[in-house]
Amino acid sequence: MDAPLRALADVLKNAGRSVLIEEETATNTGIAELPVATIEEIGNQANLVIVMGGDGTMLSAARQLAPYSIPLIGINHGRLGFITDIPLQNAVQAIQSVLDGHFTLESRTLLEASVVRDGQTLTTALALNDVVLNRSGRSGMIEISVELDNQFMYKQRSDGLIIATPTGSTAYALSANGPILHPGVNAFLLVPVAPQTLSNRPIVIPTSGTLKLTLTEIGRSEMGASVHFDMQTWSNLQLGDQITVKKAKHQIQFLHPEGLSFFSTLRKKLHWNIMPES
Q: Where in the sequence is the domain holding 205, given as residue range(s)?
């Protein structure tokens, strides 16, 4: 991975830009010729952050850099890549286009979620894709009571429940048969995972409210349920624990080269309008 990073760094330096490399990335790639910086230092000094990797890499960077309001651009060095949407082979051309001023900027909403037990907040985290409450691998179904702004919605027995942003609607929520939400839609998505009752369907809710999920029943296991913030796991949930989810105060800005849109990404990644070979 060091060769593509060095190529991008050369493009930036030749354009008169200063380049920093994140400290863990420098260690893992052996790149020693660039100034090394922590995420905090990058947040305070940079005008643009280029993330090379898969969507998981972008999710991690976005959560850490959210408070700094720095635009991010994603180079796909992974597999599917919905938010690292620039193919690696087009990276140099795309970055040069951006440096020439040919780009669009969009904002993406994040979730802020907390685990509350007996009135005490145990942990709080951000998520760009989703917050997922689910059963452990060896337990039975869990039961979740769901409220929006203290109004009861439903109780659901299932393997879990996904609360997704529009960004996350193309991630785990999509594999659980949830709809795709355009990034410009100001809404969150609730998608049940393998519900006991087939009438439990995905529902779209406004971002202005606060969700409260209460664990009212867990399967027969010492580890009955856990909660995940963009796949960052917090385990050992207990009966009666509550997960509150609301819109985070920070947003993430994604920068795209001109001509690259949400719909073009969907067409490519989901193979829309492509005829199968006979």
A: 110-249
